[in-house]
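STRUCTURE:
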């Protein structure tokens, strides 16, 4: 049994039924209160900080928490979750709680400046920028997927200096302003605030002989051709994330990511409605009246036959099963909806007009309707 070790829930001041958000919130307060950067030389604060961090590392992990709830400290120690020599720099919870910052000054800035930092000021490490690329594709390409090559302008590590910013075979001097720490401290009331050194930009070193290729920045701008796989079924506004294809990191920082935003061009005949496609097909008055079999285009370029029954009305919709858009990330397709439009003939010959009048007479159509009766018909539709 582990001696003199308090219950983890007691350490964080939360109930056993507490959720992850409440546990995280409680740990954040304790970490702010007892962080070593705020309590230099205070062994008691250091112990409380370590105790709270160890408790959070267990209770924030579902598997470790379940083991601890059932068997207590002995079980998590045996599993390697606690009881070992604690190293604040190796604690994985910092990434979740405070981003990639380690000092209290950084934490303070994060809480009151808003947002996770993209760099580690102590070492000059800076993560690369995320990039966006807007890609327009054809309607059919969005439906069935395609491989596209795009050219991305981005910052890359300088080949000549390997990202150091210095000429080959030259060394950098320790920054005289920060003594190589990359940070300068200033007191502000109760707090001791850390910030990146302006002279060395947080790297801790001053380049005395800058690389000629990159002017000492360690990076150069280049155009890179990247192959992007567009999955079947994407829509306008879809974002494709390509990890590591953004801007290059500095001083060992990881590369940013590339986000490809899809814009689908309209089609000449088809419109998309979720996973269904709709097309409007004109047929003649005769075909609608007598019935017919027509051929319509489909999205895959093939043809499909539809039987038009006699007496088909304008706006009638016929459904072709499985001829629509593939469902993104899963099997199956939508349908193709064929909307019928009756084409009224123009430029009739005398004989055609005569036959239509004869048809109207036989069908007892009133070719010269009385205005009052026509008004009554229209009125009846709105009452």
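SEQUENCE:
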């Amino acid at each position: 049994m582990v001696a003199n070790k308090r219950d983890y829930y007691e350490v964080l001041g939360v109930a056993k039924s507490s959720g992850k958000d409440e546990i995280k919130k409680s740990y954040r307060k304790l970490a702010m209160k007892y962080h070593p950067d705020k309590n230099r030389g205070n062994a008691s604060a250091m112990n409380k900080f370590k105790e709270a961090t160890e408790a959070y590392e267990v209770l924030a992990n579902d598997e470790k928490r379940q083991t601890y709830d059932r068997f207590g400290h002995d079980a998590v120690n045996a599993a390697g979750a606690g009881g070992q020599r604690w190293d604040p720099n190796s604690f994985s919870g910092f990434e979740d709680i405070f981003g990639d910052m380690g000092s209290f000054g950084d934490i303070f800035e994060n809480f009151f400046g808003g947002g996770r930092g993209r760099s580690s000021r102590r070492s000059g490490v800076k993560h690369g920028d995320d990039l966006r690329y807007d890609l327009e594709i054809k309607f059919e390409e969005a439906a069935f997927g395609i491989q596209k090559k795009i050219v991305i302008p981005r910052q890359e590590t300088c080949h000549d200096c390997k990202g150091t910013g210095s000429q080959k075979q030259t060394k950098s001097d320790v920054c005289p302003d920060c003594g190589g720490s990359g940070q300068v401290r200033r007191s502000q009331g109760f707090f001791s605030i850390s910030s990146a050194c302006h002279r060395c930009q947080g790297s801790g070193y001053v380049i005395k002989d800058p690389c000629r290729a990159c002017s000492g920045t360690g990076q150069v701008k280049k155009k890179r051709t990247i192959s992007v796989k567009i999955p079947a079924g994407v829509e306008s506004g879809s974002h494709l994330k390509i990890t590591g294809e953004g801007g290059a990191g500095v001083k060992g920082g990881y590369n940013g990511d590339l986000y490809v935003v899809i814009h689908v061009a309209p089609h000449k005949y088809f419109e998309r409605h979720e996973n269904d496609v709709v097309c409007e097909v004109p047929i003649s008055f005769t075909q609608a009246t007598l019935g017919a079999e027509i051929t319509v285009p489909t999205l895959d370029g093939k043809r499909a036959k539809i039987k038009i029954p006699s007496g088909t009305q304008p706006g009638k919709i016929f459904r072709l099963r499985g001829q629509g858009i593939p469902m993104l990330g899963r099997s199956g397709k939508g349908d193709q909806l064929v909307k019928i439009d009756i084409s009224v003939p123009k430029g009739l010959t005398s004989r055609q007009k005569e036959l239509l009048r004869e048809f109207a007479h036989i069908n007892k159509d009133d070719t010269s309707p009385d205005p009052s009766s026509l008004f009554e018909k229209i009125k009846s539709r709105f009452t």
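REMARK: The two ends are 86 Å apart (CA to CA).
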